[in-house]
Amino acid sequence: MLFAQSIFQSVLERLKAEDEAAGEAEEPAAHRVHGFSTGLAFDVMEGVSAASQRVGQAYFDNLGPEPGIEEPPRTVAEPEPVMPGHLARTSPEEIAAELAISIADTLQTLNEKRRTFAKANHPDSVAQPFRDNANRRMMIANLLIDEALRRLPR
Questions:
Q1: Where is the stretch described as Disordered (predicted)?
Q2: What's the gap between Cα 111 and its chain centre?
Q3: Distance between CA 143 and CA 151 in Å, rounded?
Q4: Which terminus of the chain has a smaller tally of CB atoms within 10 A, N or C?
Q5: Helices (H), 4-152
């Protein structure tokens, strides 16, 4: 059979013959992974996993309690967040005074002032009720610093 065939064709025929022989010898269980000697962790009795019985339920499992079910009452009352004093100052004049931008500022000092201001005032670092004020403060500070950068001598 090897005559008049390339090596590649003979290898393909041998592999095909081995597959046919292996297919006749043993049919692997549907819940098994070829090459593993044991089943997977999610397998339960008779190869039926619990998740496969609730096909569309996985999404709802992550949503939280069902609408008709009330959450248990919290035993410890969470205190209301208190707004830091600096977040109440949202006028451009107050923010300019905090930044203390001067004619002597360089590109490096202005960038450092921007980073320092953002560290204390970024909306992601404050409680949800105060994010509007923090966002407004950041916008004004960025505008003031951008204006100072634009006026720097080139």
A1: 61-86
A2: 29
A3: 12
A4: C
A5: 7-25, 57-61, 92-99, 107-121, 131-150
Burial state string for 94-128 with b = 16 or more CB within 10 A and e = fewer than 16:
ebeebbebeeebeeeebeebbeebbeebebeebee
Long-range contact pairs involving 98-101 (C-beta distance under 8 Å, separation at least 24): 98/141, 99/141, 99/144, 99/145, 101/144, 101/145, 101/148
> pTM of whole model > 0.70?
no
Range of the domain at 137: 85-150
| Tens of pLDDT, residues 22-50 | 766 555 555 556 666 665 555 455 555 55
Q: Count structural domains, the chain.
A: 1
